[in-house]
Amino acid sequence: MTVSRKKLVLVGNGMAGVRAVEHLLKLAPEAYDITIFGAEPHPNYNRIMLSSVLAGGASMEEIIINDLEWYRSNNITLHTRQTVTSIDTVNRKVVSDGGISAPYDELILATGSDPFMLPLPGADKEGVIAFRDIKDCEIMQETSKSYKKAVVIGGGLLGLEAARGLLHLGMEVSVVHIHHYIMERQLDEAASAMLRKELEGQGMKFLLRKQSEAILGKKRVKGLLFADGSMEDADLIVMAVGIKPNVALAKTGGIEVNRGIVVNDYMETNIPHIFAVGECAEHRGIAYGLVAPLYEQGAVLAKRLAGAATEGYAGSVTSTKLKVSGVDVFSAGQFSEPEGSRALRFQDEIDGIYKKLVIQDDTLIGAVLFGDTSDGAQLFSMIKNKETVKGKEKELLLGISADALSSSGGGNRLEAMAEDEIICGCNGVSKGAIAEAIQSGGCTSVGEIRSCTKASASCGGCKPLVEGLLQLYAGDAAVTVKEGICGCTPMSRDEIVAEIKRMELKSVKEVMNVLGWMQEEGCSKCRPSLNYYLGMLWPEEYMDEKESRFTNERYHANIQKDGTFSVVPRIYGGITSPAELKKIAEIAEKFEVPMVKFTGGQRLDLLGVKKEDLPKMWEELDMPSGHAYGKTLRTVKTCVGSTFCRFGTQDAIGMGVRLEKEFERLNAPAKVKLAVSGCPRNCSEATIKDFGVVAIDGGWELHVGGNGGVHVRATDLLCVVKTEDEVVEWASAYLQYYRENAAWNERTSNWVERVGVESIKKALEKPEERLALQKRIQTTLSRMTDPWKQIVNEPELRKNFEPIAIAQSETV
Ligand SMILES: Cc1cc2nc3c(=O)[nH]c(=O)nc-3n(C[C@H](O)[C@H](O)[C@H](O)COP(=O)(O)OP(=O)(O)OC[C@H]3O[C@@H](n4cnc5c(N)ncnc54)[C@H](O)[C@@H]3O)c2cc1C
Ligand SMILES: NC(=O)c1ccc[n+]([C@@H]2O[C@H](COP(=O)([O-])OP(=O)(O)OC[C@H]3O[C@@H](n4cnc5c(N)ncnc54)[C@H](O)[C@@H]3O)[C@@H](O)[C@H]2O)c1
Ligand code: SF4
Ligand code: FES
Question: What residues does the Nitrite/Sulfite reductase ferredoxin-like domain cover (predicted)?
Fold first, then answer.
């Protein structure tokens, strides 16, 4: 007998509601038929990260939490662009503005908040927006292309993050704030003043104690008029003056509503079978506006719906971290010194550090940190757990180092934390999930934990706790990855890449300055690696630094042991013609090339060439560079495949030529070699290549991480695909994922060995992830030009190859 499932309807496809559903699916996967209505056109995305999207730190694709495939695979019916407009609590059904009706046994309202829009005259003009969703983000990005001046009303978290994003987009930005200091809901005056100074340094202008009166302009906004009679020009006005819970729908069902939808400790409204969760819900008089408490609510609701035991939701202490690059601000609990409390302060004007701890009855109840927020997550944990701080107040004020966390005291505290305690509030990642990623998932760095669990992927405030857990569970393995990339820095590859991204550092010099390099000029290890990471992260803006490259890459030729060079023209797939061979032979004769040799990758190598002959030879060859010297795609070796071989099942030559044309000039962490074989006899030795393609009946096997060098390594099978297009798609995704995640100079064989092929399969399994990676590699490839074409055509560059004239002087 089949038991019919109950019908669960969720209204609001946002962070809180979908998180509750995710929990429920884990607890009782078979219990409900689930239907979700979302007013927005997108699948569930990370609203928090909109600030990062605006500031250029993430793409729209990267902020999707659950893609459409997730809904499909969990049998969830999703109605996007459908706003539910009424609830019939008697017949238990909801109806959307598009006329979709859905019956329910249980109903969750997770309608979030609406941004509060100041009811100013002119507020309906074009160019007046809020900052709440993807659409707002897109409007800001679009506006910045044609307009110059933005005004943000509201100097709170949202206003400042919007202002930072607009600066990044190249707009002039003024922040209008009603109080005499910004972020008064999170900071005291001292920290706020330091923050303002820092943001002014980044180009933000502040108009404090300003009451907005009217928005000026005809159809489109022109300016903002204040109550004191002054005005500010504006092409765009972003209102960020707070939010109000979205209770409109609840009201249609006669559900009890105060500021938000009133719920008890089990997220139940006053109407049976109707629950509310997230920003729209009001629990014990509080409607929260941060995700961490909303995720806690979601966990309780999921247990309730699954019939699992739960003590209910008891309210949350909150903490916030401003997500503005180059500024570290943290605030938690009661920072404004309530009666009966005492405060400890530390201020270092030179390094721009401010700390304040608020203590009551020997427990920490609030904290404000500016300039150095590394202790934020630990302090917050102490506040939440009401730990006694008696006798160690000053120690806390002066800083809990990451090492102290992992030493017995800190380690014990992390050890003592409950498994389900949330470590990363932004992404709702528990201690247990991180422990599992380390212990079972084999993660050995914060970067890997981030990829695996999303912990530390948003505001970054939890990073010290994640590091502490890494040291607790991975022990020595974690210590090794914490080592710096060279003697110039204690930072690991992942940390450097994350900081370059977060702080938008754009040159080798800037990275060294900002990240506190111990040797001003760096060394031969860090300079080329930074050059690579910057080029990989900012393919469209970064100008490759020639001086950070090794000799071979500077001269675009392999230097030989006698000081001569080699010339290797590109011969796609190893396929040439009599005419091409004739031309190469004539040039070899003309320039008296002492040796012509076939390389291991089926190319022709003209060896023993004088440096000064290089430009002329390349000019006469008029062929693309074979890049036989660089950290790039070297060759795609092919067998004859089905074109001539009787065993061949596919066109190995065509596939190889296509791959070589697709990826030539690729800038990679280390050299990359490919091969294509036309059948499993594998004559092109594809299973010892970085990416090997082996034809089978009706498709292609894709192999990765092979090496035929000093340490021979056979490839791991990545997947089997049917078409040539799929081969290119997977190759693109795989190579870009390697580019983005491997350390500079790390061959794919070492990288695959280190991270495990399973983690790569997981990262590439979703088609949209692959397409996003493919798009990024295409952006990079589209910027790559042939080095020899450039040298041949630019007299300045040709000069580098002239024989060095030795200046002589005579004394008479
Ligand atoms: C730019 C920005 C940055 C932020 N940064 C942080 C941060 O760093 N840290 C932090 O903790 N919080 C941050 N927040 C706040 C955080 O994003 C919210 O607290 C969280 O998204 C609220 O989740 P929710 O599910 O309650 O609401 P939402 O995520 O808003 O989801 C509600 C969804 O319901 C839909 N909806 C509403 N009514 C209906 C209806 N009748 N029918 C169908 N669909 C409906 C809405 O369109 C919306 O998609 C930020 C918010 C913004 C805008
Ligand atoms: N990093 C983060 O944690 C983060 C980032 C963005 C948004 N959020 C959340 O999103 C929500 C919205 O953020 P928010 O900053 O809009 O809300 P908020 O209520 O925290 O701050 C609004 C700010 O606007 C100011 N203000 C009010 N009326 C004004 C007026 N007429 N003129 C000028 N200033 C005025 C207030 O003094 C206040 O500082 C909040 O829940 C916030 O916590 C959090
Ligand atoms: S791999 Fe197969 S198709 Fe290619 S040459 Fe060898 S036997 Fe022929
Ligand atoms: S707490 Fe914000 S990223 Fe983890």
Answer: 559-622
